[in-house]
Amino acid sequence: MSTDRAPFAYPPAARLNLVEQIHGHRIADPYRWLEDPADPDTAAWSQAQDELLAEHRAGWSERAALRDRLAQLLAVGAVTAPVWYGERGFFQRRAAAQDHAVLLVIEPDGAERVLLDPNAADPTGATTLDWYYPSPEGTLLAYAMSVGGTEEPLLRVLDVATGAVVDGPIDRMRHTAIAWLPGGEAFYYSRFLAPGAVEGDDPKLHRRVYLHRLGTDPDTDPLILGDGSPRGRYFMPRVSRDGRWLTISETQGTDPRNDLWLADLAASPPDAPALRAVQQGVDAMTHAHFHDGLVYLQTNRDAPRWRLCVADPVDLAYPNWRELIAEDPGAVLEDYEILDGPALRTPVLLVATTRHALSELTVHELHTGEEVAKVALPGVGSLGPLTSRRDGGHEAWFSYGDHTTPGTVHRFDARDNTVGLWARPPGAAAVGDVVTEQVTYTSADGTDVRMFVVAPGAPATGPRPTLLYGYGGFNISLTPWYSPMAIAWAEAGGVWAVANLRGGGEEGEQWHRDGMLAHKQNVFDDFHAAADWLVASGTTTPGQLAVMGGSNGGLLVGAALTQRPQAYAAVVCSAPLLDMVRYELFGLGSTWAGEYGTADDPEQLGWLLSYSPYHHVHEGTDYPAVLFTVFDGDSRVDPLHARKLAAALQHATTSGRPVLLRREGDVGHGNRSVSRTLDLCADELAFLTAYTRRP
Fold first, then answer.
1. Which residues contact 121 (CB under 8 A, 6 or more apart)?
2. Alpha-carbon torsion (688, 689, 693, 695), positive or negative
3. Which distant-in-sequence residues (6+ apart) come within 8 Å of 156 by Cβ?
4. What is the pLDDT of residue 175?
């Protein structure tokens, strides 16, 4: 790769002569000092990186125009599908000028009213509404807000009619779910332990399930499940709509399997439910839903693409599960709703599936599972979660979107199997001549992989600047959804490609497992093959090809740039995991060992070392231009990963292309304000534009 500009000086970074012997491997860690953000040397180095970024950003001539266009595309706002409890509906909507969506309630007479407005609560945009759960009757609302991206919220309960807070705050509520009992007097929830409760360990990694009665001290709530559970357990309680059945799903970190517990609340008291195992020690995921005296079990047990079974909750032995919707060998069962009520002659199942990451919707007879209709969708794209009335009925709602269509909300009517528009986003933005196609390419081991390609509608006269995006992990599927970045890039003449790599969920659980643990290299091979296809097809050239990913996708592009630096001109690596030897020691890293493996195991350490980006940087290499983006409030993936690899690349690269670090305060890994998103995306696109213009 040729030099684009004269060499420049990077901020000095001491290289430690630190080498450890771990399971027979000599592992160097020259930048371990950058793990501590409070160290004065780390702070000085970070400040110098801020100044270096500002110097380069001043030369990104197209940033202002890109920011303006992104602002127009984001100004469409957003709207979500409603959830219905009692006679009230709850949904979120964001107007063009708002940083965050507002939670609204639909009253029985159809009038809408603002219930929670994070923008009013904090005009700085640093406060986010993390989640909310209405009571079964729609009279109360449990909700949680957090500040600065920490995702460590306080739970409060408000009276929906008056807006008054009637309970809370309750702390230590990260990553929980609320399961209300009928009447709204109590709910089940999970909470991590108090500081100092676990000697020598982070209490945030230890959770238990409790029952909370409104108006009582949460520290006296009765323990329901989890006493003595190991670190990294997550719990998801649910109560059936008739209040009789309690289920609790228990997982170890992000492992792709769960234990499932069931209690009959008619036969045991709510504060001491007699829990029995539905599934325990089984290498599969199963979720339960109760209807009309039966339990419906959505499971990938003996069905990697998922299926739906039904059983009597009194006897839930696996041989007694009756298959209702069989596994489709070409599609993944994603969601379903049971629709009933006096307006229907017979109750039905509304079933959402994805076929190669594109959504389909079908109607089935409830008792036999027989398909009776295919539902016409608004386009070829993705559906959001299905919702229906908690108390039953013939209606369902869902969101629809694709790469160039903002998410709209639609209402399905089971009386005639029709779909009608329920809500559009409040704003509008004209999209230029941009088209999307899905292509199939072959990975290194012969596996077919699919990719979405968003491009200008006008025929190409030659290779174009191209951005390849991927994730490839944790069973997360990259399905089409409205993307202002993709649109702005394509309108400017570029190609935006999204690869559905192994490790994701696009083709079911086996697709996921083919990209995790010992098979993680498959993900990187799929990504390299996508890049090769884009070049071989004439879409782009290595000098015009950039890659981007965040979180696990940051690991992906970190591996891509260290394994094949010559293949890519520029890289955006956001909130990444990069030191895979020490990732378990920080943030939530220890809960991901089921996905990556653990350095405590000699064999698994070998897997991690084989691709860990930080450990595969070689001096004297022409590395691509790299922009790391990190967030100081990130409590999932510590910014230390980006600091360490940035320092290593700045020391090693000979290309003359910059390695830059962009950091932000008061934001975290997930939810963030639109204004902060706008500036981040503008910087990323301007950086990519600056380094993908030559053939």
1. 127, 145
2. positive
3. 142, 143, 144, 145, 165, 167, 168, 169, 170
4. 87
* Active site (catalytic) residues: 551, 669
Query: Strands, E, within 76-215: which ranges?
Result: 78-79, 83-85, 88-94, 102-106, 112-116, 127-134, 140-147, 154-159, 165-170, 179-180, 186-192, 207-213
Length of the chain: 695
pLDDT at 358 over 50: yes
Contacts of 398-401 spanning 24+ positions with Cβ under 8 A: 398/81, 398/352, 398/361, 399/79, 399/80, 399/81, 400/359, 401/480, 401/481, 401/482
Summarised one tens digit per residue, pLDDT across range 562-618 is 999 999 999 999 999 999 999 999 999 999 999 999 999 999 999 999 999 999 999
Chain segment 223-238, per-residue pLDDT in tens? 999 999 999 999 999 9
The per-residue pLDDT for 3 is: 35
Cα–Cα distance list, 418 to 353, 358, 363, 392 (Å): 18, 20, 11, 18
Q: According to the 3-state scheme, what is the secondary structure of 491-512?
A: HCCCEEEEECCECECCCCHHHH
d(CA 645, CA 441): 31
pTM over 0.85: yes
Q: Which residues contact 656 (CB under 8 A, 6 or more apart)?
A: 3, 4, 5, 6, 7
Q: Which residues of 88-119 are buried (b: 16+ CB within 10 A; e: fewer)?
A: bbbbbbbbbebbbbbbbbbeeeeeeeebbebb
User: How far is C-alpha 330 from the geometric centre of its chain's CA atoms?
Assistant: 24
Phi, psi angles (nearest 5°) of residue 7? -60, 150
Say which residues have a Cβ less than 8 Å from residue 217's Cβ, sequence separation at least 6: none
Interatomic CA distance for residues 511 and 472, integer angstroms? 10
d(CA 394, CA 677): 39
Residue with tokens 């290299």: 521
